[in-house]
Design brief:
The complex is a heterodimer of chains A (592) and B (173).
Chain A: E1 4-9, H1 12-16, H2 19-32, E2 37-42, E3 54-58, E4 61-65, H3 70-82, E5 91-94, H4 124-129, H5 134-141, H6 146-156, H7 168-177, E6 184-189, H8 198-205, H9 207-221, E7 225-231, H10 235-250, E8 267-273, H11 282-289, E9 313-317, H12 318-330, H13 332-336, E10 346-353, E11 359-364, H14 369-376, E12 386-391, E13 397-400, H15 410-415, E14 424-429, H16 434-448, H17 454-471, H18 479-492, H19 497-501, H20 504-512, H21 514-522, E15 537-539, H22 549-553, E16 559-560, E17 568-569, H23 579-583, E18 589-591
Helix pairs in contact in A: 2-3, 5-12, 6-7, 6-9, 8-10, 9-12, 16-17, 17-18, 18-20
Chain B: H1 12-15, H2 25-31, H3 38-49, H4 54-64, H5 68-77, E1 89-94, H6 97-101, H7 104-115, E2 128-133, E3 145-147, E4 150-152, H8 157-172
Parallel strand pairs in B: 1-2
Antiparallel strand pairs in B: 1-3, 3-4
The chains are: A alpha/beta (592), B alpha+beta (173).
């Protein structure tokens, strides 16, 4: 009989959901009752909506338990571990006990996320047992030249997963072709898109794959130094990267004459980002590593020619790099078989917002948005009406429900006016106001604009002011046209991607939901009942019990009525703060 | 663009406790002469004091040769750096897309109201600094807030206040 394994998912999101306490509880009982099971850690398997997740592997198979708090942990130990009887109600995935949640994994193909949630990220042996560092060994063993490796990456059809979608292999080729005594590889781990967290999950769950991808890149372009530029907001990712770096150095996977290849030296350092979204842009990122303000510069020269410290530099994002070892190990054909004609392979999406099963999913390119939301994501929370999905974060746009048959590949998504971006997918239902969403993104880009280009610096500010005005009921005729004009000017006269794409959320919502803008401006109404200033609060006399909870909470004394009397809201005094609505326990405050 | 201003010199000594600048010596020795040192130096300074005091800027300028304008320019560019002391606990309210859609604004308002501070401000007792941040990367637990290193997900306004009340109670005891 094999020893039973208990594996607790300890990614950032799992820990936030209380996985640390669950782990401690298993540990406590194991020691107290002297139980003979192995307690291990892993990272996020992507099923965020059921965190904390605990997997139990025994002789009879594997069982994934969801939402395991300490009290459930006690129950699982008592029934499953001590008495060998699993608890079907808590199981979210197992061969023996079908669960409704399994649809989340159907249709997923895990390449970038191949190790996330399946191994201990702090253990290099476990990575090697899952074909880790096998790709670089394959190259060393077969004496494959850097050019051959680059050709393999080109043949795979892999395109940059950070948002741009440029051919990765070609980018490597450019950097290879420039002759210089020193070259650099940079891993862009400055994931700043609000609503995207796949890079964090990969860094926390599979740091060695990132290192191996960088080593392969270093070998191909002829670089000897690598940097990982990681957000300081991801402390756990940085901790696990440091552990991985130490282990790789001890094993001799970083350093000199690596894997028996004479003259191939490579080492990696971590640079902590200091919090600036614009540093996701290549030239701004380089400026930041060099210790300057993260402001983009004109290209050309491209970083492949003159990058970090003026040396040829190749920059790839995390998701791109972790695909590389898989491609080299399994062959480019295997990767190119997946996906569509121009977008090969798989893409990771972060499903969030008003969706039932939020989390990380990896699907082959070419699947429809609808399938992702309804089949993998389980549909809309509370079975409300699906309104739109925001793709590509602040640089992307809203795709409305009637275009949800759009397939995900770079070109199809771009045709809708959105962009693939890093893969954030924020689902909105009928209660989400698209004008407010557009204002939200403009507020973000406006704050994050580095200030170099005038139109980006001031234009986004003016657009934000107009949008704020509209959501507060002060919209005027001509506002829409003014927004469109400003948007065009910002696109035309900004240097980098941040400015060029900043108006996208406004332009796409104007394209698909113009009527909602008009309702805000002309009728002073918010059809989604979300913009507070445009709402009317009234008391439903049938439901009001006269408890005075709302009268006490009203900051401007707009509500009249004593104890057990039906209350009344004076509309001329009401400031639409919504306090009465949240306070009322009887649903007697009506919004229209 | 976020706009920050350094606090003018004269009242400084009265408002902020003076700091022991010699703590920075090891940090400076470690990075002196290395390229790309500026940001790690500022990050290290902030890790020591919780913010970057005015005197620390002057010391860095004297001992590393980096110009004050460069140091100050970088410190005011990045969101991470503080020029004034923060409270004992830092509350980061996530205002990423997913949290926004799940109405985090109501929670932030409630919390600011309860603590009687403005966004970015520190409470009168010096216990809490509240700031709104872009995505914390825990989107499926939205709305989320982070108190120091601990993340709390699926919040409601009431729960958020409860969590803070409890920390305050523990501090007073």
């Amino acid at each position: 009989m094999k020893k039973t394994k208990v594996i607790v998912g300890l990614g950032s999101c799992g820990i936030a959901a209380g996985a640390g306490k669950t782990y401690q509880e298993f540990d406590r009982i194991r020691k107290a009752d002297r139980l003979d099971f192995e307690l291990r850690k892993t990272s996020c398997v992507g099923m965020c909506f059921r965190e904390p997740l605990v997997e139990i592997i025994d002789d009879s198979g594997s069982y994934l338990y969801g939402q395991v708090d300490p009290s459930k942990a006690d129950e699982i130990i008592e029934k499953h571990i001590k008495n060998f009887s699993p608890i079907p109600e808590y199981i979210v995935q197992s061969e023996k006990y079908p669960s409704a949640d399994e649809s989340f994994f159907e249709g997923q193909v895990k390449i970038a996320l191949r190790n996330c949630g399946y191994m201990d990220p702090e253990n290099i042996e476990e990575y090697e047992a899952r074909s880790g560092y096998a790709a670089i060994r394959k190259i060393a063993g077969n004496h494959l030249s850097p050019e051959t490796v680059i050709q393999m990456v080109i043949d795979s059809g892999l395109r940059g997963r950070g948002g741009g979608g440029f051919q990765t292999g070609l980018k490597w080729k450019f950097a290879r072709n420039y002759d210089a005594p020193q070259k650099y590889v940079i891993c862009n781990a400055d994931e700043g898109d609000p609503g995207a967290f796949m890079d964090r999950s990969i860094l926390e769950g599979d740091p060695h794959s990132v290192l191996e991808g960088m080593i392969l890149c270093g070998y191909s372009i002829g670089a000897s130094e690598g940097y990982i530029y990681c957000r300081a907001e991801y402390p756990l990712a940085i901790k696990r990267l440091n552990i991985a770096l130490d282990q790789a150095r001890t094993k001799g996977y970083l350093g000199k004459d690596l894997f028996g290849i004479r003259g191939f030296h490579f080492d990696i350092r971590i640079k902590e980002g200091a919090g600036a979204f614009v540093c996701g842009e290549e030239t701004a990122l380089i400026a930041s590593i060099e210790g300057r303000r993260g402001m983009p510069r004109r290209r050309p020269p491209f970083p492949a020619q003159s990058g970090l410290w003026k040396s040829p530099t190749n920059i790839n994002n995390v998701e791109t790099l972790v695909n590389i070892p898989w491609i080299i190990f399994n062959g480019p054909e295997a990767y190119a078989r997946l996906g569509t004609e121009k977008s090969k392979g798989t893409k990771v999406f972060a499903l969030t917002g008003k969706i039932k099963h939020g989390g990380l999913v990896e699907v082959p390119m070419g699947i429809t948005i609808k399938d992702i939301i309804y089949k993998l994501g389980g549909g809309i929370q509370g079975d409300k009406k699906f309104k739109a999905v925001q793709l590509g974060g602040p640089s992307g746009g809203c795709v409305p429900e009637y275009l949800s048959h759009t397939i995900v590949d770079y070109d199809s998504v771009t045709a809708t006016g959105a962009i693939m971006g890093s893969g954030g997918m924020v689902v909105m239902d009928e209660t989400t106001c698209v004008v407010d969403i557009a204002r939200f993104f403009l507020d973000f880009t406006q704050k994050e604009s580095c200030g170099k280009c005038t139109f980006c610096r001031i234009g986004t500010k003016r657009m934000l002011e107009i949008l704020t005005r509209i959501t507060e009921g002060e919209g005027q005729e001509g506002d829409i046209e003014l927004l469109e004009e400003l948007a065009q000017n910002i696109k035309d006269s900004s240097l980098c991607g941040l400015g060029q794409t900043a108006p996208n959320p406004v332009l796409t919502t104007l394209k698909y939901f113009r009527d909602e803008y008009e309702a805000h401006i002309r009728d002073k109404k918010c059809p989604a009942l979300s913009c507070k200033k445009l709402l009317t609060y009234q008391v439903d006399p049938e439901k009001c019990t006269g408890c005075m909870s709302c009268t006490k909470g009203c900051p401007v004394d707009a509500i009249e009525g004593g104890k057990r009397e039906t209350h009344f809201i004076h509309q001329d005094i009401c400031i639409q703060c919504g306090v009465c609505f949240t306070r009322c326990k009887f649903g007697a405050i009506q919004i229209s | 663009m976020r706009i920050k201003r350094i606090v003018p010199a004269p009242p400084l000594q009265d408002v902020f406790p003076s700091v022991d600048l010699s703590q920075m010596d090891a940090l400076i020795a470690r990075y002196k002469g290395k390229k790309g040192k500026l940001i790690p130096l500022l990050q290290g300074t902030q890790a020591l004091f919780g913010y970057i005091p005015r005197e620390a800027f002057l010391k860095l300028n004297r001992e590393t040769g980096l110009s004050l304008s460069e140091l100050y320019g970088v410190a005011t560019f990045y969101a991470q750096f503080r020029l004034t002391p923060s409270g004992k606990h830092i509350i980061k309210m996530c205002h990423g897309t997913a949290c926004h859609v799940q109405n985090v604004t109501a929670i932030t308002d409630e919390l600011l109201d309860f603590l009687e501070v403005k966004d970015g401000g520190t409470t009168a007792d010096g216990l809490f600094t509240v700031e709104t941040v872009a995505c914390l990367g825990c989107c499926s637990l939205a709305p989320v807030m982070m108190v120091d290193e601990e993340t709390h997900g699926k919040l409601t306004p009431k729960e958020a206040v409860k969590i803070i009340k409890e920390i305050r109670r523990n501090e007073i005891q």
